[in-house]
Design a protein that fits this description.
CATH superfamily of the largest domain: MFS general substrate transporter like domains
Largest sheet: 5 strands, antiparallel
CATH topology of the largest domain: Growth Hormone, Chain: A
Oligomer: single chain
Strand content: 5-15%
Structural class: alpha+beta
Distance between the termini: 67 Å
Strand order of the largest sheet: 4-3-7-6-5
Length: about 625
Amino acid sequence: LWGQSNMGAEEPNPTGSQRPARRRSLFNSIKFFVLCHSLLQLAQLLVSGYMKSSISTIERRYGLSSQKSGMLAAFNEVGNTVLIIFVSFFGSRVHRPRFIGGGALLACLASLLMALPHFLSGPYEYTDHISHGKASIDNRSAVCQSESNLNIKPTNQSCSQQDNPAQHVAYPLLLLGQLLLGIGVVPIQPFGISYIDDHASKRNSPLYLGLLLAATAIGPAFGFITGSIMQRFYVDFDKVSKDHIHLTPKDLRWVGAWWLGFLVASCLIFITALPYFFFPRSMPKEEDADDVESSPDCTKQRPDPIQELSLLQFLKSFPHVALRMMRTPIYLLVILAQVNQAALLAGLATFMAKFIEKQFNRTASLSTMMIGGVCIPLAVVGTVLGGVVMRRLNLSLNGASKLCAGAIFVCLFSSLPLLLIGCSTQTVDGVFPPGSGSLSCSASCHCPEEAFNPVCGSNRVEFRSPCHAGCNNIQFGPHNQPINFTDCKCVGGLGFASPGTCGSGCSHLLLPFMVLLAITSFVTSFTQTPSFMMILRTVPAEDKSFAVGVQYMMFRVLAFLPGPVLYGSVIDTTCILWGKKCGQQTSCLYYNLDQFRSRFLGLMAVFVGGALLSFLLTVRVLHRGAKTLQRRIVGII
């Protein structure tokens, strides 16, 4: 196959005419490379999107805080940030297809590694696990128990039985998987784009790059949709029989099969990585009429100055060139605007599904589908339309800056009303409102501190468990499922309580919220293409590779790395009841929803405001520059 790398070239014969070209190998076709690369980018970005869609589920499964889960979501950027600056240097010095294939196999391994904690851990344990009509090991947490019937195991004994060393390595394994994923994807997009640009014709190159960008945009959406599907399956469906699964997706303790998507994604990456080991280092350049009619001087490419540097020279020159570009006001302001937008995206992608789940009392599966099926597709449409408008109106630098500023101004007006759409946390006995509750009435029940099995009393007050509601009896349904808890002395005398949360009462507000969020996603993405073109038009031609490299490095260092951790830390400040297991704090059980809404969406509004300010300053600087140029021309005349 390698010996046939030039078999597609046309050969002259003695008469001066050219022989018909022989059939090219499939791996000497740039069209086939574009197809393979689109599929690989789709599979690779599916993993990134899937991780973000599963964050709240992983958080609940392993008892993580939002800050820790935010760090997990951002950790793939660590390896990516460290190595991305070397991509510009290596360029065409290496066998790019093989490097892409090697990186893809590393990403495949990383995806498998992220699924590993599930197989090392024991079955998912949750309190108030009732099976076959009888209370299980910890029946104290199910209903109220008098002291005479109390059978308490020593805390250290029950914890030692539940303790699994794998639980302690789950988080480090997930971090390692994210780190390897970030390293593996480093060569995929830049080497793929440069390889296509080197071997595609001038006419077809924009079309091919457009297909790649489409795959880049669709990949995360597929990841969220896959996450939505997997979260409908119980996490341990492979370890326990169906008869022993007593939770439903609407239960606050439900954990979906978060690990299954990583296995599917690793298989897809492995399959799409294999063809890259058969592509040649270089192939005959694709030709069309425009290329044939062009003169040799026009088609001759300028040597890339980066490729003429040694590695040491490159590392020494990079900071100087980066600082030189940062001194360009337009470049700096546009980068700052894009960093604010990237930080906005980091919060929306990582925690918006969790926000919808908590605020509107929806399942994790539906909340994830809202992001993957509504917000991301509209963001893709906005990006494409932004490019179409830029091309149709043939906008100048000044026109592009005004378009971006106008779009972000509209975005600010569509995002601010989101702060007003929502409800307060439902009344939870002894938890919310603070200082309220009748925990004294269940004091004689000796409810364990760790108990969490929410029930809704007939008086519309929620309790952490039937035990905390003072319930004495359980009514079971035909499938041995608890359908009612009765004789509850904390529920209006001897009322009853139903399994499940009372909810915030905001379900009807999800539709207007999603409409405004969809508009915000669409309008924000509308600025992506114009702002990117502003960067390319601002810097000298020889600095464009550096400019794009610095741009993506700034995205990672200032937005994608700290963004999810910042959002997670803000969310943690709104928690009003943390879970506990064996004396250790786990994930949050209840949030103050008013604070959650105002702080989470308020932080997003701050980033929208930062982007607007940066684009307005860009318009101002360009306007002043145009006036100065006009005065100079008038002075010369």
